[in-house]
Write a structure and sequence with these properties.
The protein is α+β, with helices and mostly antiparallel strands. The chain contains three helices and 15 strands. A hairpin with a 2-residue loop joins strand 6 and strand 7.
C-alpha cells in the first residue's frame, strides 16, 4: 500500500472510534467506511513486468479511451490515452527503461479526464524518458477529482521498465506518446494494468511476431504544438 493510505485511513479510523464512543456506534460508520475506501484506493499490488526488448508498458491501470496520431512540434507521434477511475490503482509506472531527460509540470484546468481536451488543458506532469535510442513521453494528467500529482524521480535518474515513479490522487488520466512507427498493441476499450500490460513495441525487430499482427489503427487527430 502507498503510504498515503495510512495517512488518510488511520486518522479516520481513530475518528470513527472516538465518534462511536462519544455518541452512538452508528455514527462511526461514515468515517470507518471512508477509511476503508482510502486504504483500498491507495493499494499498490506487485506486477510481473514484461522483459521483451522494445516493449512499452502501460504507466497506469485503467481503460484505453483513445489511440490516435498527433503532431507535436511538427513530428507525428502515436498517443495512447488511459482513463483511471476512482476504482483503479493510481500508482504510476515508467513505460520503458531509460534516463529521465525532462520533467515539466504544467498548471491547468481540472476537466473530466475522459474529455479529449484534458490532454492539453488539464494540470499535468510531462515526463520524457530516453532508452536504447528511443524516446517515450508520458503524461500524468489530473482529472475532475484529482488535485495532486506525485512524481519521484529527477532529471538524470535511471528508471526501469515498470518501475513505480509516482501517483495521481482520485480519478485521472495517463497518456503515452511514442514514435508513430511503433507497433501498437491496444485499442479503445481495452483494460490495461500499470507495468504489466504491453501497449506497444518500439521496433518490430525486437518482437518478430509483431510483423505478423496488424498494428491498431488510431484516429488521426493532428494537433500542432500539443504538449
Amino acid at each position: 500500500m502507498v503510504r498515503d493510505g495510512y495517512v488518510y485511513g488511520l486518522p479516520l479510523i481513530a475518528a470513527g472510534l472516538l465518534v462511536g464512543w462519544l455518541t452512538q456506534p452508528g455514527w462511526a460508520v461514515i468515517p470507518v467506511v471512508l477509511a476503508v475506501f482510502f486504504l483500498w484506493f491507495f493499494r499498490d499490488p506487485e506486477r510481473v513486468i514484461p522483459d521483451t526488448a522494445g516493449a512499452v508498458v502501460s504507466p497506469g491501470d485503467g481503460k484505453v479511451t483513445e489511440v490516435a496520431q498527433v503532431t507535436v512540434g511538427g513530428k507525428k507521434l502515436a498517443r495512447i490515452s488511459i482513463f483511471l477511475s476512482v476504482f483503479d490503482v493510481h500508482v504510476n509506472r515508467s513505460p520503458i527503461a531509460g534516463i529521465i531527460r525532462d520533467v515539466r509540470y504544467h498548471r491547468g484546468k481540472f476537466l473530466n479526464a475522459m474529455n479529449e481536451a484534458s490532454a492539453e488543458q488539464n494540470e499535468q506532469n510531462v515526463v520524457t524518458v530516453e532508452g536504447d535510442g528511443q524516446v517515450v513521453v508520458f503524461k500524468q494528467i489530473a482529472g475532475l477529482l484529482a488535485r495532486r500529482i506525485v512524481f519521484s524521480p529527477k532529471v538524470g535518474d535511471r528508471v526501469e521498465r515498470g518501475q513505480r515513479v509516482g501517483l495521481i490522487k482520485f480519478g485521472s488520466r495517463v497518456d503515452v506518446l511514442l514514435d508513430s512507427g511503433a507497433s501498437l498493441r491496444v485499442k479503445v476499450g481495452d483494460r490495461v494494468k500499470g507495468g504489466a500490460s504491453v501497449v506497444a513495441y518500439l521496433t518490430s525487430q525486437a518482437y518478430p511476431e509483431a510483423q505478423a499482427e496488424p498494428a491498431v489503427a488510431g484516429r488521426d487527430s493532428t494537433r500542432q504544438g500539443a504538449r
